[in-house]
């Protein structure tokens, strides 16, 4: 591979890439706490940083419904460990979130670079703008979900496929499915079908095998450098390549996960194999709720892509030329992916994260196409000059033999040139109203302007909706706020004994993590305790609002998100009143 081809496949950074990074960091600092789905990877990262033995790891006490891999937390620990000696635990929580967010941002930047190279730079710019004005992708890009780790590899895989690097794409996608989220297999199926046609196109564009035996013996004419002799041989070759490119990373991922996770779980285990059995064969994911078949198409994806959706819908009717674009092909892959995943009754947006950047890429390609097709008109004078040159050349060819007629023709041409010059001057003076072809605008241009208008308006609408989601999410983690409030209260009290704090289930699921714990307080998260059993603790964080006032002193309530209150907002015209809150957790001290 020469220097130019290597440079072509390397990602490039642009100033606009700092926009999603800045927004991502704002999300981290305004909403740093985690929910129960993120708890395993976050607690595991904490334990890898601070625990000296495996026995004190959180997953041995709270294993969760299904086991998860430690490969993601190990990666976060590797990049965060040097700062452990400079920052306290609470500050390390922000750092770990920023490290994961930076990993996701780098993958999105790599995809933007691929869009620049394959589609256009304008499309790459629009991709960044669309992604930055959508809430969910950047908000969850720093959250320690298994889906986030899988999303990073999926985005790199899509970028590689966009650059026609099929082997690299397969390796990344298979590793992401084997190690982090087995549901990437659902995306891998339509992706491999698209890669089949892409690979066939690449192979059929190679030079033919030379018939000369000497040329065949030349090292430049190896088997894998030449076009297959027939379609059957072509598909046979593709099948064998895909088989090797899929099985090799699959076996490597299983072995890697088995060795690492068996050590931390203290038993032989491949976590994603257990998850695959739990979700598909046993279908126990339905215990956590079910949704209709159309839920991804009708609710979750429209909610996630927001400003990309109008452009995506209009593009089907406006721009048939995009059917050959790789962005269109990948959008079809994403639709098939959603369709296949819809057969699973339990549906969540995090399951289909990889579809979001694909749809944004398709919308950005449409938007770029609109800008590249503005007012492409042919000047009538230039067109008239071309007709004159064609007429002259034809007459010269016909009358070369006859010298007598040649003089007459030259005289005629001189007269025509004079008349043509007069006509050109008249055309310059007159307007284009006489030419119906120049006068009318094509419907295609009208739709282009219309889609551009929709796109710019949707960016503004996306900003407003994103701000709404952000303010709602700030109050959606009352457990983390409650624990910080209790820690602050106990530090101010300067008690003579070591406080024993109990945290109930709701608080533990809405923001509590080991990063928020401090050494001079003992913590407990035991479940299913009766009210009398709570007396063994000195302090409580609980949902119960009416504990016996003779035994417990209410320190303060903690509020959480309670929905959107439009009536109050219209009366006060204060943006903060749009989001209503209520007391959801209560801090108690035993008398």
Automatic annotation (TrEMBL):
Cell compartments where the protein resides: Endoplasmic reticulum membrane
- GO terms (BP aspect): protein N-linked glycosylation
Task: List the EC numbers from the record.
Answer: 2.4.1.-
Q: InterPro entries recorded for this chain?
A: GPI_mannosylTrfase (IPR005599)
Q: How does it sit in the membrane?
A: Multi-pass membrane protein
CC terms in the record's Gene Ontology section: endoplasmic reticulum membrane
Q: Name one Pfam family in it.
A: Glyco_transf_22
- Region of interest (Disordered), ranges: 380-436
Described function: Mannosyltransferase that operates in the biosynthetic pathway of dolichol-linked oligosaccharides, the glycan precursors employed in protein asparagine (N)-glycosylation. The assembly of dolichol-linked oligosaccharides begins on the cytosolic side of the endoplasmic reticulum membrane and finishes in its lumen. The sequential addition of sugars to dolichol pyrophosphate produces dolichol-linked oligosaccharides containing fourteen sugars, including two GlcNAcs, nine mannoses and three glucoses.
Q: Which family does it belong to?
A: Belongs to the glycosyltransferase 22 family.
> What is the official name of this protein in its record?
Mannosyltransferase
**What lineage is on file?**
Eukaryota, Metamonada, Anaeramoebidae, Anaeramoeba
